[in-house]
Design goal:
This protein has about 400 residues and is an alpha+beta fold. The protein folds into 2 domains: about 150 residues, FAD/NAD(P)-binding domain; about 190 residues, 2-Layer Sandwich (D-Amino Acid Oxidase, Chain A, domain 2), CATH 3.30.9.10. About 35% of the residues lie in helices and about 25% in strands. The chain has 10 helices and 20 strands. The strands form 4 sheets. Strands 1, 2, 9, 10, 11, 12, 19 and 20 form an 8-stranded mixed β-sheet that branches. Strands 13, 15, 16, 17 and 18 form a 5-stranded antiparallel β-sheet that branches. It has a 4-stranded mixed β-sheet with strand order 6-7-5-14.
Length: about 400
């Protein structure tokens, strides 16, 4: 093996978390010989490139959790990064609306969490104040969250990657990891482009992170269960229905935030998403089916325990997937004036949700470190918002291994 194929760190996964980690490593370890491998022909091809572009404030997350800490720090770091590198963004704010009085206790809890997470300027609104900010929204009360914003995460990721290249980091596209094996002095990686060796490996593979961990000889203890979120796009002439972003009060038992209205940085307005089980880990359409991925989900005991707890909710989500009228009815809870004629089917994303064997959804980010590897095993939303902060956390783990 030639010296040109020996690296200090090999990162696998070219989404925003992988690129942010690579960037953090170049900053904390100047001169580090680093390679990032991405199986697709471009960066940000999956979760990063199929999300709604929201810069989350940190309202929802349990105070003290990795999500809360990294979302708060990462949000401000992301705003500063975009400003420094001339990436368009907008700190537009969002309104979370309670549509009936039964949702007020959950709204109170959101407000408590938001304040505990340092959201200065968080404002409780009565019905009249909601109408001042969002004249078309239905609400008995609400919260205005000024820190929320919007951005194009694909552009953010590409900028991170370019900064990594500028200081000598290598990014190799179209290269998939088959397996990795520990050696006396590092890790040997077998890829579609041949073998290479690194002192350490970092797994930031999102939808495939559990499989990659197993290919590296590590039992992740969780299974990625893919959930597809489908969106509608509001027609241009009706975009004035929404001024900020409008979100419902979420179900506290679920990691999903419910259908909402999201202004995009390109001027469009999205409505959604729902959350249905995807039959392929990269399945953005109903016609996308992978027998391997289906089997991987169905043989996992944790999936059936999860399904046993949430089958009613799951059926409602499937109904919304197949029925435009059902989807629009959900939107009308927030904005009664929106009609079926005002929206057309848009894109979709797939969330990599880690599930334990007990059927419980892994609620927080999960990062597992072994002797020569770091595996990011759960990093769904708000990972894009928190990416610069998460990247530093992962780089810190790598630093401990390098110095150990």
């Amino acid at each position: 093996m030639s010296s040109s194929q020996i690296y200090d760190v090999a990162l696998v996964g070219g989404g925003i978390v992988g690129c942010a980690t690579a960037l953090a490593l170049t900053e904390t370890h100047p001169g580090l010989k680093l390679i990032l491998l991405e199986k697709e022909a471009r960066l940000a091809a999956h979760q990063t490139g199929h999300n709604s572009g929201v810069i989350h404030a940190g309202l929802y997350y349990k105070p003290g959790s990795l999500k809360a800490k990294n979302c708060t720090a990462g949000r401000e770091a992301l705003y500063a990064f975009c400003a420094e590198h001339s990436i368009p963004f907008e700190r537009c704010g969002k309104v979370v609306v309670a549509v009936d009085e039964r949702e007020l206790p959950a709204l109170d809890e959101l407000e408590r969490r938001g304040r505990a997470n340092g959201l200065d300027g968080l404002t409780r609104l009565d019905a009249a104040q909601v109408r001042e900010r969002e004249p078309h929204a239905a609400a008995v009360a609400g919260l205005f969250v000024p820190q929320t914003g919007i951005v194009d995460y694909t552009r953010v990721t590409e900028t991170m990657a370019e900064l990594v290249r500028q200081v000598g980091g290598e990014i190799r596209l179209g290269t998939q990891l088959h397996k990795a094996q520990g050696t006396a002095d590092g890790v040997r990686l077998t890829t579609t482009a041949g073998e290479l060796k690194a002192r350490l490996l970092v797994n930031c593979c999102g939808l495939h992170c559990d499989r990659v961990a197993r290919r590296c000889g590590v039992e992740p203890g969780v299974r990625i269960v893919p959930f597809r979120g489908e969106y509608y796009e509001v027609r241009p002439e009706r975009r004035d229905l929404v001024r900020h972003l409008i979100y419902p009060v979420p179900d506290p038992t679920l990691p999903f935030l419910g259908v909402h209205f999201t202004r995009m940085i390109d001027g469009t307005l999205e409505a959604g998403p729902n959350a249905v089980l995807a039959w392929k880990r990269e399945g953005y359409h109903w016609s996308d089916i992978s027998p391997l991925d289906v089997a991987d989900t169905l043989v996992f005991p944790g999936f059936w325990r999860l399904a046993g707890s949430f089958w009613r909710i799951g059926l409602a989500e499937y109904r919304r997937s197949f029925s435009k009228s059902a989807f629009v009815a959900s939107l009308q809870r927030l904005v009664p004036e929106v009609a079926a004629a005002d929206v057309a089917r848009g894109g979709a994303g797939v969330r990599a949700q880690a599930v334990g064997r007990d059927g419980k959804l892994v609620d927080d980010f999960r990062i597992v470190t072994t002797e020569r590897m770091v595996h990011v095993l759960n990093a769904p939303s708000p990972a894009a918002t928190a990416s610069l902060s998460i990247g530093k956390v992962i780089a810190g783990e790598v630093g401990k291994l390098l110095n150990g």
